Automatic annotation (TrEMBL):
Domain N-acetyltransferase: 9-174
One GO molecular-function entry: acyltransferase activity, transferring groups other than amino-acyl groups
Pfam families cross-referenced by the UniProt entry: Acetyltransf_3
Signal peptide (from-to): none
Source taxon at top rank: Bacteria
Name recorded for this polypeptide: N-acetyltransferase
Organism whose genome encodes this protein: Sinomicrobium pectinilyticum
Keywords, in A-Z order: Transferase
The keyword Transferase appears for this protein: yes
Parts forming coiled coils: none
Length: 175
């Protein structure tokens, strides 16, 4: 049976009550480099986003899930994006908001749950992640879960006045 529940966390659909957390996350300039955000988001825009978050992945080509602990505390989000049913692939991204919650296995568990879900439930053949060359935490996370480095995009992102390479990681479902 497919489940989105692990030992420490579970993945769930977005709720209207997630607005304050989403507002903090989307307006946290320290992670804009990862999300390619360039301007703050208003509460109104995020409220509209939450109203439409129930739409089917086949329609909107993305799926965002909340990462929560068993006390219902919201810890972060994990996304499938650029979902392509024809080619059976999707990009994946993850963010844990509070640094105190990082390096505790939460990201590992969330990524494993989402990977299993994408392969088993959505019939995805491959997942990929784009990771900045200096994002050692994400490189370790994805590598530990079987994602392989398949290429480097030179000078891909312009951040902090400098160009940075981005590494493409891929995991293919061979089952």
């Amino acid at each position: 049976m497919m489940t989105l529940t692990g030992k420490k966390i579970f993945l769930r659909a977005l709720e209207p009550e997630d607005l304050d957390f989403l507002y903090l996350l989307e307006n946290d300039e320290t992670i804009w480099e990862v999300s390619e955000t360039q301007v703050p988001y208003s509460r109104y825009i995020l409220k509209e986003y939450l109203k439409n978050s129930h739409k089917d992945i086949y329609e909107v080509k993305q799926l965002r899930m909340a990462i929560a602990d068993f006390d219902q505390k919201l810890l972060g989000f994990i996304d499938l994006f650029d979902f392509c049913p024809k080619n059976k692939r999707a990009g994946v991204g993850i963010v844990i908001l509070e640094t105190s919650q990082r390096n505790r296995g939460i990201g590992t568990e969330a990524l494993q749950l989402l990977t299993d879900y994408a392969f088993a439930h959505l019939g995805v053949h491959q997942l990929y992640a784009n990771i900045a060359v200096d994002n050692t935490a994400s490189i370790k996370l994805f590598s530990n879960l079987g994602f392989k480095e398949v290429g480097v995009k030179k000078d891909w992102n312009f951040t902090g006045g400098v160009f940075k390479d981005e590494i493409l990681y891929q995991k293919i479902n061979n089952s």
